[in-house]
Amino acid sequence: MMIREATHKDWPAIWPFFRTIVAAGETFTYPVDLGEETARDWWLLPDPDRTVVAVDEAGTVLGTAKMNKNHMGNGSHVASASYMVASEHSGRGVGRALCEHTVDWARTTGYRAMQFNAVVETNIHAVRLYRSLGFEVIGTLPEGFKHPVQGYVGLHIMHKLL
């Protein structure tokens, strides 16, 4: 697997799993009916932020990550990131590789920490992954997310010093 800068040419490969993940309404705070053009604008970030794709040896897009500053001004020393992996490629280490990549990017870019603002507490695979990479839950917004199956569940704020 290789992780490289995403381009607009990658969007047709990203959009199908992006749309499926968002429409499921289980892990992202995006509108479940998010349109393709808006989704592309929200995900493919310009410099100095960054969007990457993980690809296999055949060039198939397995997953993607976007990374950016978490806040502006005096809070701009903290990075954030989001990840999506195509379901047919889950369980193969794609999410871990993308997360490690974003942490390395944040560290080498000069950020002092990374923070995830809205990790759905029922997304146990993501919570477990982030914890294994040194992130801690520093707070939970009770009932901050309306899960389509489990009802109102918490949104974790997760943090890692770099």
Walk me through what this model shows.
- With 162 residues, the chain is of the alpha+beta class.
- It has one domain (2-161): Gcn5-related N-acetyltransferase (GNAT) (Aminopeptidase), CATH 3.40.630.30.
- Helix content is 29%, strand content 36%.
- It has four helices and seven strands; from the N terminus they run βααβββαβαββ.
- The protein has helices at 11-24, 36-43, 94-109, 124-132; strands at 2-5, 50-55, 61-69, 78-85, 113-120, 136-147, 151-161.
- A seven-stranded mixed β-sheet has the order 1-2-3-4-5-7-6.
- A hairpin with an 8-residue loop joins β3 and β4.
- The longest helix has 16 residues, at 94-109.
- It is globular.
Output the number of helix runs: 4
CATH fold field value: Aminopeptidase
Q: How many separate domains make up the residues? A: 1
- What is the level 1 CATH name? Alpha Beta
Based on CA inertia axes, which overall geometry fits?
globular
Radius of gyration: 15 Å
Q: Give the rounded overall mean pLDDT.
A: 97
Low-confidence stretches: none
Please render the helix and strand layout as text:
Layout: E1 2-5, H1 11-24, H2 36-43, E2 50-55, E3 61-69, E4 78-85, H3 94-109, E5 113-120, H4 124-132, E6 136-147, E7 151-161
Parallel strand pairs: 4-5
Antiparallel strand pairs: 1-2, 2-3, 3-4, 5-7, 6-7
